[in-house]
Amino acid sequence: MTVPALTAETRWRCTLCGNLTRFDVTRTARVVEYLHFDLAGDSKVEETEVLAETVESVRCRWCNAVDQVELVDRPGAEAEAAEQA
Ligand SMILES: [Zn+2]
Question: In which domain of life is the source organism classified (predicted)?
Fold first, then answer.
């Protein structure tokens, strides 16, 4: 089972336990980071540009199910759609 991609109107829901809020997400990303070093040599990332990103797996923090998520509407998504119609 693959992980469905999130959109502005949807969120993940664990199909086994109904969890909506807590997931461990394994992702690969290709990013450009602007590192700002201080005089001591410690660095901070001040800007991040994501060039490409893939979600590999999503594990539910409640029941540990892996990749058992479905897309459901976010609260208010239906109301907004009705307003725009
Ligand atoms: Zn779950």
Answer: Bacteria
Collect all residues with Cβ–Cβ distance below 8 Å to 62 and sequence separation of at least 6. 14, 17, 19, 22
Residues spanned by the domain of 27:
10-84
How many angstroms separate the alpha carbon of residue 54 from the centre of ligand 1?
Answer: 21
CA of 59 to the centre of ligand 1 (A): 8
The whole-number average pLDDT for the span 11-25 is 97
32 token code pair:
């450009």
Q: How far is Cα of residue 51 from the mean position of the Cα atoms in its chain?
A: 16
Strands (E), 1-85: 10-14, 23-37, 43-60, 69-73
> pLDDT, tens digit, for every residue of 19-45?
999 999 999 999 999 999 999 999 999
45 CA → ligand 1 middle, Å = 33
Q: Is the pTM of this model over 0.85?
A: no
